[in-house]
Amino acid sequence: MWRSSRSYAHLMQVFLGLLLLISSPSAFAEDALNQADTAWILTATALVLFMTIPGLSLFYAGLVRSKNVLSVLMQCFALTCMISILWVIAGYSIAFDDQGYGIVGGLGKIFMNGVGEDSLTGTIPESAFSLFQLTFAIITPALILGGFAERMRFSAVLLFSAAWALLIYAPLCHWVWGGGWLGELGLMDFAGGTVVHISAGTAAIVCAIVLGKRRGFPEQPMTPHNMTLAMAGAGMLWVGWFGFNGGSALASNGDAAMAMFATHTSAAAGAFTWMMCEWIRFGKPSALGAVTGMVAGLGTITPASGYVGPAGALVIGISAGVVCFIATNYLKRTLKIDDSLDVFPVHGVGGILGTLLTAVFASNALGIFSGQEDIQILDQLGIQAIGVLATLAYVGIGTFILLKIVDVLVGVRVSEEMEIEGLDITQHNERGYDL
To answer: In the chain, which end has fewer C-beta atoms inside a 10 angstrom radius, N or C?
Structure first.
């Protein structure tokens, strides 16, 4: 009898403890929070920021002429600061507040309203999610710098980039990842084929056309002043891209691992294919071609990275090497458009190619080339094409309008005398090299 009463009391204690745990408001948050996922996203965030500073900064700085090296570094650094401030004020809310209408987010999260230590996005803190997305918002306008390198006023760079980030990037981000109409339509963009690469490439070529050619282009060669610097920056981009694509799984799981595997495979294939194309076309492979092919492979696999397998990524990387090589030469040699650092033929064309090929190699019906998704290829290809066209139209028209407004306000292009002397001295009163 005594033992029976004791057992009954013990069972009641267990029951009351479970009831208290279930009724606790924090119990669900603690159960939903996944520490492994959180640790991975924090790491991925650092990797993506590493892509811009110092990765993209050094990559672009090495590709311009020595009189403009500091200007590129300064532009990347300043944009990182400015976009971070704008993201806190309104960018995050425009992109991810779900109180919008499918076109643009609401203003319920301005100044990070409601983003506290206990608020979650999936299994990670919302603060970690917002910070991770901020690094994407930083690198996208930073990529555009390559389209107008060596000829835009620093004041115009800041004004244009601020307006572009809030009025172009953030709404587009909402369309695809923030609950907007493209996401609802079923667009597959794992890590930014449309949001980052097509948008940056389109904006870059519009800038190149509106600003016009650099003085002497294309008659005078404008070769990179320091390929060692560019190679170092490219290596940092390659490493940082693991966070870019792998982190987009928003979890420490098989999707993240496969995204990283696909990313590396495509980068290697893109670089090697571009080298072979150069070797056949010009007789010698170049370091510039190798790193450009690597970036093409990375940009092209980005929308597909979490959906495809290694064999599909191999085909995507090879395709990127060939298609982006042809696009680069056609743009500069035939059309004679001065996209200074080849942003459109590498990121724009690569993003378009990768977004469309996602519909093919994400399918699980291709045998050894199968991906992870049970989709109808032709139906998905139509959705992907809508995403591509919508991005091209919105970004192209929006960028053109913003440039014209900025030109009226401050003037977008430096004078011919400033361009001859170099942007380091004329815009910042400093030199990148003082030997």
So the answer is: C
